[in-house]
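Archive transcription. Copying these from loose printouts into the bound notebook so they stop getting lost. Printout 1 of 2:
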Amino acid sequence: MSEVGAREAPLLDEEFLARCAKLVLFSRSITQGRLRGEKRSRRRGLSTEFADHKDYTPGDDLRHLDWNIFGRLEKLFIKLFEEEEERNVFLLLDASASMIEGEPDKWRHCRQIAAALGAIALSAGDRVHLRVFDEKMRPFFPALRGSRSILRLIDTLENLAPGKGTALGRSLRAHAASCPPGSIQILISDLMDPKGLEDALRQVPGSRGESWLVHLLAGNEVEPDLQGDLRLLDTETSEYVDVTLTRSVVEAYRRAVEEFRADLRNHCQRFRIQPLEVSTSIPFDQVILEWMRQKRWLT
């Protein structure tokens, strides 16, 4: 176990896991998984779950004629069934060094949110893919299936160590190259990349399925509580800058944060990504059980 994992309490407790089992990820698009699972698509197929009837037309499969209705009405109807398919859910975790900064730190919040969403997806029959990136996309973890994989996912996240730098665009491009259509993609990140957001967010467009963004910010990143003469260190590049935090400097910082948020909203709208800004000062279970349900990400 890593030092990070050894110091921390479990990411999720049994009571919260029981609540997760009662939720499902809500997808507004038609599921397009290749394997059968517990998620019903809106398409009519020939599974075992009866859905409706349609009038018989020449060429229909005679094995699916409803003879009971024919006996009563002397009309031919074909039975329709709901097609059950398995969805792919991708958890995209930013493990760069900036994620361990702030108070409370973003790294634990990130993993708790990922563990909860993964547990919900696995309980409901989805297939879960965990993808972690920092300076590059790390080797892919094997896909997980079934509720028995929940503890394996949590254990992986508890022992996950943060990295150093950030390569958001290159990492998400590596993900996009192998992401199947119709997937639910959930990016959890502080989005702090000196190369900007546009190219990175372009890699997770909503046209590929459902694209969600959990934008994590620590409370003191939004409202800095520092003052005086300071030397600020960039944990990813090891560069530093000397500043004097006067009132005007703090106000300029706040304006820059608001501009960053506005740019993010514009990019998300352009690329059909559904964003949710989360402060680490808000307990993660409130984010899951209240905020995400209000956004209709969960039902």
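Printout 2 of 2:
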Amino acid sequence: MTRDQPNAGITLAHIEAARRIIAGHVLPTPMLPAPKLSALTGAEVFVKYENLQVTNSFKERGARVKLASLTADERKRGVIAMSAGNHAQAVAYHAASLRIPATIVMPVTTPFVKIAATESYGAEVVLDGEGVSESQVRAETIARERNLTWVHPYDDAHVIAGQGTTALEMLEAVGDLDVLVVPIGGGGLMSGMAIAAKGINSSIEMIGVEAALYPSMRNAIRGETRELGGATLAEGIAVKNVGALTLPIIQALVSDILLVDEEHIERAVNAYLTLQKTMAEGAGAAGLAAMLAEPARFRGKKVGLVLCGGNIDPRILASIMVRELERDARIVSFRLTIPDRPGVLGQIATLLGQVGANILAVDHKRLFLDVPAKGARLDVTVETRDGAHAEDILQALKAAGFAPVRIETGAAMD
């Protein structure tokens, strides 16, 4: 495989060969219809569940193909990789199965769940840098010092071919898809999938998705200068440097790259959990996030999504769920100014019970200058059925003379 062609010399035949290499070592994950997501987006949605791999992401495909290509001497000396988590786990897991020593450099911002998982497979983990670009500098230094073989997360022909096997399986399961929506970080997954999909069906549309905070591939292709950086839920695609191999492939085969903000990524993670009953990390949910952000773009089409990773910090997932309940007005906070006398709290609790509100939190304070000397401020957070129910509760509190004001839930605990 060479660099002198737009596809880096990678063809459908290479990807089919990669599929034979991973057979028996990487799971052929389900590709299933998602009626609830179809109803949510207005498209006919099918989901490829790469979060069901042993290390819970698609990265195993490329890692296995790359490691299988190494010489006996390279295997003995060991390999090194840099990753925000999923590539790290994939390399560590398959290196262990092939008895290849592995060193992984990870950003210091990597969620602990990914660090712990990588170490559990026996790899040496080095934490360095705020992002993968900084981690790459350290990894390259270690590679030179120890004479280790580099396993790049995306800019490697073997890795790209391995990732392309995802599209082979998707189109075998559903052969008449109109479009594949694929997250883009460095571009390895999209490159491999685009070569495979276009090789099978030249009319299929390939649409990439990047986190709005890290539009590196879109910048490179369109000549834009959007700023890069910031804390994103989709740390798996928070890449500042695009691949030398992947850039021309994506430029040639991908029709568009959409940017998604953090709110839509959160909504997509929550939708996978609550509607599909499956775990998606931010990067894994990016494709669905794009459909939620731009539903008109996909309405009426037959869409294939890759849920490419499910390694999300449980604490972050819990926070997302609560935030979505707030957005849907199923958790609502009210601020009341009440007379400071016995029995008032009981009256409010009784009233909320009568209107079907479940009290989650109460914050009762007296020492504020904007509250009458004989009064108190009461912040109460309740669980509701929906937005209409929240409005009914507000009106009931008004009718009772408590002059309620809707507040943000986070502010309720100030």
